Amino acid sequence: MNRRGRLWLLPVTVLVALLLALLPLPAPVQGLRPYWLALVVAYWVIEEPGHAGLGFAFTSGVVADLVTGSLLGEHALRLVVMAFILQRFRAQLRFFPLGQQALAIGGLLLNDRVVAAALHLLLGLPQLPWPYWLAPLVGALLWAPLFLVLDAFRQARRPR
């Protein structure tokens, strides 16, 4: 992939993930919204570790905190924890079939909910309702299609 392709693809995917996070949903399905930004960050940490690491996760998280109006640093902490775990197991995850990757990503998204719940507990903030605990399952189901779409864009930018 040429340098010019990298310059626009990473921020565009983060921007799309942030827009999907802001998209209004009906109240009954609000809790099922996947953590789009975590899915996008996970993809880039796995596929482009030279350009997407802990700094990328932290910056994306701070932007998400500012855009969503959440506690400053909450998304940043959650994404850095996830990126750290992904970096540690990247070599194994890259060669998993997509179904196994989806299970691993689902586990990471569940871990993200645990980190968020612990943070809310420590700060005395209200806990998320139980439907929000189903969102990691939705994220795991969306991992394969999202991975294939992002991979197609990334591969299309490679010089022949």
TrEMBL record:
Q: Where are the transmembrane segments?
A: 130-150
**Which locations, inside or outside the cell, does it occupy?**
Cell inner membrane; Cell membrane
Give the family this protein belongs to, as stated in its UniProt record. Belongs to the MreD family.
> What's its membrane topology?
Multi-pass membrane protein
Which InterPro entries does this entry report, sorted A to Z?
Cell_shape_determining_MreD, MreD_proteobac
Gene Ontology terms: cellular component: plasma membrane
Cite the Pfam families for this sequence: MreD
| Key words, A-Z | Cell inner membrane, Cell membrane, Cell shape, Membrane, Transmembrane, Transmembrane helix
Looking up PANTHER family in the UniProt record yields: ROD SHAPE-DETERMINING PROTEIN MRED
Keyword flag Transmembrane helix? yes
Q: What is this protein called?
A: Rod shape-determining protein MreD
The job of this chain, per UniProt, is described as:
Involved in formation of the rod shape of the cell. May also contribute to regulation of formation of penicillin-binding proteins.
Q: What is its main location?
A: membrane
**Top-level taxon of origin:** Bacteria
GO biological process entries: regulation of cell shape
